[in-house]
Amino acid sequence: MNKRSIILFSLIPLVCSCVFIRTDDSIDLGNHYRYVQDYPRTIIFHQSEKYEGIGDEIVPPMVKSYNFNNRYIIAKSEDMDDKSTKYWIVDKTLKGSKVEPLDSSKFYRKITELKIDLKL
Asked: Is the pTM of this model over 0.90?
């Protein structure tokens, strides 16, 4: 084997191993909330100051759309079992508190009541 072949065969495992390195592509929604875009798409809350890849699920999969501002996150999700559509309003000041799903009429009524200027 010549020197060129040895270098080539030494570099192949190094280059191939980089293919499997996973990068965090979640989106910061503020106040320790993140939208995880990977399957299954969800919104989580993490306790630590710096996001470390884990957190408590706030909006279960499958998030179809979301929007947020300084105070609220609104989301629309589809239940993975029964395929029903659910709507969510997350008050970010409540620091990861459990949120109950809403149907569309209750969701839009609550958006108006809370004067949340966000659209899905």
From this structure: no
